[in-house]
């Protein structure tokens, strides 16, 4: 039987909403707080989820008696026994993580002085040492009774609810066993092993995990480049390399590079953290520059094929950083669209879910309701996101809508032979 707790979750973004909904599903009473009044209004009045995450709307609806949404920080913490911090920590101009939203939560706790609050748990990705600084700040204001836990999240967008409920591990960083036990109890019903460690190590696990995953992607993209020069096929290479149980098959998909809210930001934050302590993280530097180069290299190949990009019409198929999400954060498509426009090309794009972005470069790109319409009159099309719809497209027919049948598959989702048979000049990443 789950010991139900009163939990306040700060941040109604991808992490906070999933955490809140999943904790409610586990039987806890959850109040989610955000500073965005429109978000809170939607969640409160129409039960509308302001982001796209499969299953989240249903989970929130099923648990509505145990879920409250508020703008009021004091109201959120007043009766809470556990506070979860799920606010974003975007990079500052120096590359360090901006912790101002995290500190705003600490400030709200100090102001409200909640009597029942036992644990402050941080899910936001923070530099190592943040927990200790928060500890000191709490102690200095007489809040020694509030225990601290670093409880990083490892959920990926598109599968976040499953990832929360069936994690590879639940990392619980605390300085005492009682707090670790309390955070573990909160997860009763979640199917995954608990790794109870110290706070700085828990903070580092998150950064190290994301950096290692980013390294795998950069590595396979480097291999793809060598494959292009030598005639090997990166898909066959990755499949066989991944069969080695010591290496594993995951995160070996070559493409236009990683994007999203975590990998780019966390890799830079870890590099900044290392630099701040006088250590140049060389390997991570290389990973970051390989990833930055990847979309630019693809455009260079396309430019060579077309002779110039000036006044060329280019269709971008997919805008989000990966399929299954509406998230455009750090999407390779943004670099590609910017570069194309800077070269004087015309950009016509399609995406089934991407949030409509008003700012550059998207304000200068025409968005179309279907891949075929985006490809009409185009001199080339680039598959930027691996949307499953693209696999089922009648390519032989859409080819005739294009001015020139040049297709750059930036995610290696199409079959080279069929595309060539359909009449395309077909290019992809690391395949002959
Ligand atoms: C990631 C982590 O997986 C998750 O644990 C963490 O909590 C947040 O960051 P997410 O950003 O949602 O999750 O997406 P993920 O599926 O991991 O993909 C990240 C990026 O890497 C995407 O742009 C994806 O296209 C790219 N990628 C992934 C590759 O280019 N190749 C691969 O083999 C795998």
CATH fold group of the largest domain = Rossmann fold
* Low-pLDDT stretches: none
Share in β-strands = 5-15%
Query: Helices and strands: which structural class?
Result: alpha/beta
CATH level 4 superfamily of the largest domain: NAD(P)-binding Rossmann-like Domain
Mean pLDDT: 96
Rg for CA atoms: 23 Å
- Supply the number of helical segments: 17
CATH architecture of the largest domain: 3-Layer(aba) Sandwich
Task: Give the CA-CA distance, first to last residue.
Answer: 57 Å
In CATH's first tier, which class of the largest domain applies? Alpha Beta
**Helix content class:** 40-55%
Specify the biggest β-sheet: 6 strands, parallel
Given the C-alpha coordinates, what overall shape results?
A: globular
| Small ligands present | uridine-5'-diphosphate-xylopyranose
Number of structural units classed as domains: 2
Strand order of the largest sheet: 3-2-1-4-5-6
Number of strands: 14
What do you see in this structure?
- The protein is α/β, with parallel strands linked by helices and 432 residues long.
- The protein folds into two domains: 6-197, Rossmann fold, CATH 3.40.50; 263-428, NAD(P)-binding Rossmann-like Domain (Rossmann fold), CATH 3.40.50.
- 43% of the residues lie in helices and 14% in strands.
- It is built from 17 helices and 14 strands.
- The strands form three sheets. Strands 3-2-1-4-5-6 form a six-stranded parallel beta sheet, with helices on both faces.
- Helix 13 (332-342) links the parallel strand 9 (313-317) and strand 10 (346-350).
- Helix 1 crosses helix 3 (56-62) and helix 9 crosses helix 11 (263-276).
- It is globular.
- Uridine-5'-diphosphate-xylopyranose binds at residues 153-157, 210, 217, 251-253, 255, 258-263, 321-322.
